[in-house]
Structure prediction request, 127 residues.
Amino acid sequence: MGTPQISDSELELMKIIWSAGGTVLYAQIMEALGKAGRSWQKNTVITLLSRLADKGFLTVRKLGRRNEYAAAVSEAEYQAVQTQALVNKLYAGSAKGLVAALIRQEAISPGDYEELRRFWEKGGGEA
Prediction:
């Protein structure tokens, strides 16, 4: 998959869909937005969902009069592509540069570092 960009609002909808297991109905999206304190208009949400489908992030299936939205890209796949794009853009492709910056900013604690080191030594399963 290429790396089409999605807006922060589109990403918010994708996070709702991913957190629901990858498949949701429109009403579930609106309920989740309400719980998050978002009062987006129906047309706004429909437009964002349509854009996500056009970009290949969602598939839409009609269930009677309702639409079911399914993630066509997993959260892990999206994160991997975006992380690589960030590393390429800001660190000339060097993941070491990104990690060094995180350590300098103390965004990675010594405990995190040890956990990552063990993860690396095991060949990269779950950290």
